[in-house]
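Troubleshooting entry. The earlier prediction with iron/sulfur cluster gave an output that would not parse, so I re-checked the input for stray whitespace and re-submitted. Clean input:
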Amino acid sequence: MSELVEKIKELKAKKNAVILAHCYQNAEIDEVADYVGDSLYLSRRANETNADIIVFAGVYFMAQTAKLLSPDKKVLLPRLESGCRMADMIDLEQVREFKSIHPNIPAVCYINSTAEVKSECDMCCTSSNAVKIVESMGEKEVLFLPDTYLGKWVEKQLGNVKVITYPGFCPTHLVIKPEDVIAAREKYPDAKILAHPECHQEVSKLADYVGSTAEIMKYAIESKDKTFVIATEKGVVDRLVRDYPDKKFILIKNNVICPNMKWHTLQDIYNSLEQEQHEITVEAEIAEKAANCINKMLEVSQKVLQP
Ligand code: 13P
Ligand code: SF4
């Protein structure tokens, strides 16, 4: 164990802190993380923890979600620059305008959005529960924001709900083109191609399986197949390669990297915990409404999905 890893672990114990890490983080972060997973899993852990401090190795909206779910805890983001470029595509004014163009239709926000945006929405979802959450609402039409591709994926899976999407997108996942899937299929004919629903719909259409980061990992781990082409961020591939050496995992394109997820280093985690710096705060009125929106999702998710 490196000296830095040891120092972080000591600090964590001394301060009763927990470290949550998204699976797009640099893989070295796992050495100090208590929980590593996708956004739904990490939201649940943030909701349940007894720690006094949560250090969130992820992007800003994830740390903000942890704060909304655990308002009495100190939530720290090691590097404040780590914003989600998709979440930043819509603000409070824009969500209000989107709703006013389509009045009286319930609004569903992807968890990749700010607290302000969530405070204006009726329901929240993550990539792993989006289909079930929209289905549970029993509506004929919903507004979906900010990710147009996840929204269209939900619409296609359900078949009987019109999903009106905001034109947001993830720049990291849109690097992947249908031609990349076709080329991977030719180069690795025995491979299963696994994609995230933030990918362009033409990419999802060509994949063998579409799921959240955790679902992609689960599929690859449990599958009898041996080779997988992964159409999501590199962190997923790094962890699969590290943990399952008897299988082969190929990143569909070597630039599928979320630069903002990669900001945090072990040194940043140490600094943030040691100095208790980069604390996330949310204005009370917004926090209450946004927390309601996320809690509704967690309640429904608990009923319709495995914990
Ligand atoms: P997950 O819901 O799979 O964790 O995805 C979050 C994300 O930001 C994907 O780009
Ligand atoms: Fe946001 Fe895309 Fe990065 Fe996920 S991969 S955090 S959606 S910019």
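This one parsed fine. Residues 38-39, 112, 126-128, 170, 198, 212-213 surround 1,3-dihydroxyacetonephosphate (ligand 1) (CB under 6 Å).
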